[in-house]
Amino acid sequence: xxxxxxxxxxxxxxxxxxxxxxxxxxxxxxxxxxxxxxxxxxxxxxxxxxxxxxxxxxxxxxxxxxxxxxxxxxxxxxxxxxxxxxxxxxxxxxxxx
Length: 97
Prior knowledge:
By secondary structure, this protein is of the alpha+beta class. The chain is built from 4 helices and 2 strands; from the N terminus they run αββααα.
């Protein structure tokens, strides 16, 4: 049995997606906490799983945080599924942690 068969199915599926996927928990404030990031996030933003349970404020630079808070706020107000697509111009190997 190889190691990929021991991975949970959701992890295999999410890491197979080329787009960045974030799962965010919302708490009072509102505060937004990362609960999951896929391999595309790790590769693109040079993050690691240490961001799990950290807030957007703790992880991202100010300009990125402001854009995300605006989008997350719209989602909270609408209480509907919101698709958010953004383009990032990042230098190679820039790290936020």
